[in-house]
Amino acid sequence: MEIFALENNFQLADGNAIPALGFGTFGIFDRLHQENIIADAIACGYRHFDTASLYGSEISVGLGIKSSGIAREEFFLTTKVWKDDMESSRIRSSLESSLKKLQTDYVDLLLIHWPRCNSADAQWIEHLNEAFETFILLKKEGKVKSIGVSNFLVHHFEALKTAERPVVNQIEYHPGYMQQEVVDYCKKENIVVEAWSPLGRAALLTDKTVLKIAAKHKVSAAQVLLKFCLENGVLPIAKSTDIKRMQQNASLMHFMLDANDLQELSDIKQNTGWSQEHPDFAIPSARVGDF
Ligand SMILES: NC(=O)c1ccc[n+]([C@@H]2O[C@H](COP(=O)([O-])OP(=O)(O)OC[C@H]3O[C@@H](n4cnc5c(N)ncnc54)[C@H](OP(=O)(O)O)[C@@H]3O)[C@@H](O)[C@H]2O)c1
Predict the structure, then answer these.
(1) Alpha helices, DSSP H only, in the chain?
(2) pLDDT < 70 regions, the chain
(3) Is the sign of the CA dihedral 259, 261, 262, 268 positive or negative?
(4) For position 4, what pLDDT does the model report?
(5) Whose CA is nearest to atom 31 of ligand 1?
(6) Closest atom of ligand 1 relative to the 197 alpha carbon
(7) CA-proximal residue: ligand 1, atom 26 (nearest)
(8) Is 199 in the pocket of ligand 1 (CB under 6 A)?
(9) Cβ proximity of 95 and 58 under 8 Å
(10) CB of 24 sitting under 6 A from ligand 1
(11) What's the CATH fold of domain 9-200+229-240?
């Protein structure tokens, strides 16, 4: 019954492997607290960290890795270029700054954070293509091992004309917001889908269907939601500030959701726990506390 725990990987289309459970680092703004959280996550066995130029967590991830004494190559680090930095020169400075903060000379995965900077941006297609062409060069230069995108829908992929294609799309994904059309497109195009907010930012932890299935398997609601991603071939990025919950989120090997469970979860009303963010008409701006 071995299905995806911390030591398992997804295969990327470029030949690289990515650990099947990521640790999210958004929304922890106190640096000392952040450093302890990263140290705890490493102690729990997490090696795949998801950060972004926006999150303010890159310094703590870098420090956490350095002080762990574990070799850099044992980790998989993702960072993202913010939507207002899509010009070639700004992408380069964004990555340079991320590398410095992370105390490394490469990232394993670089993502375009959002496909357009705002709804009024009439030139978003040109910006997107310029951005991804730059990503391709950064990969050739060895500063990035794999390149991908985040918050892309099918029409954003279709607008991208570059010869090399993204290998990852990180999107909001949980039973209450399954985005089936883009998930099916990514599967067909061999693009790994990562789930951000796989717990619906905790909103789904009290859903009655999720709780019923959790009770049936004697696991927590969070474990059901993370397993739901994995059994649907989606890589969850889970975030917790608490070491016990980190351990629980990584403990997914001892149970399987059956076809009935998966169907019942998929039947949860869509938009339950949805963040209200959307890449075309509800694009987030940097929020209070972001830096
Ligand atoms: N690409 C993008 O645009 C984008 C957007 C949003 C997020 N992300 C990434 O995705 C990551 C995860 O998303 P998220 O942080 O928004 O939401 P999430 O992982 O769905 O939910 C996090 C919330 O769930 C709680 N939680 C975690 N494990 C739990 C457990 N076992 N039992 C009970 N509660 C639990 C956490 O509280 P405690 O901390 O108190 O445990 C926190 O309040 C982010 O950190 C970030 O790396 C990417």
Answers:
(1) 31-44, 58-68, 88-102, 124-140, 154-159, 180-188, 208-217, 221-231, 243-250, 259-266
(2) 1-5, 287-291
(3) positive
(4) 54
(5) 245
(6) 20
(7) 240
(8) yes
(9) no
(10) yes
(11) TIM Barrel (3.20.20)
Show me where the domains of the chain are located. 9-200+229-240
Residue owning tokens 């958004």: 26
- 158 C-beta neighbours (distance < 10 Å), count: 11
Q: What is the pLDDT of residue 289?
A: 43
- Nearest-angstrom CA–CA distance, 128 and 156: 9
Look up tokens 């997914």; give the residue: 252
Which pLDDT does position 27 carry in this prediction? 87
Cβ-proximal residues to 256 (8 Å cutoff; 6+ apart), any chain: 1, 3, 227, 231
Answer yes or no: is the C-beta of 248 below 6 A from any ligand 1 atom.
Answer: yes
Residue 171 CA: which ligand 1 atom is closest? 1
Distance CA 195, CA 169 (A): 9
Nearest to 103, CA basis, from 71, 135, 65: 65
Closest protein CA for atom 38 of ligand 1: 240
Please give the model's pTM, rounded to 2 decimal places: 0.96
Q: Hey, which residues are catalytic here?
A: 55
- Per-residue model confidence (pLDDT) at position 64: 96
pLDDT at residue number 168: 98
pLDDT of 2 reads: 44
Q: Whose CA is nearest to atom 4 of ligand 1?
A: 196
Q: Which of 55, 76, 197 to mutate to test the pocket of ligand 1 (most atoms within 8 A of CB)?
A: 197
Q: What is the 3-state secondary structure (H, E, C) of 157-168?
A: HHHCCCCCCCCE
Q: Which of 239, 39, 12 is nearest to 108 (CA)?
A: 12
User: CA-to-CA distance for 121 and 128, rounded, in angstroms?
Assistant: 11
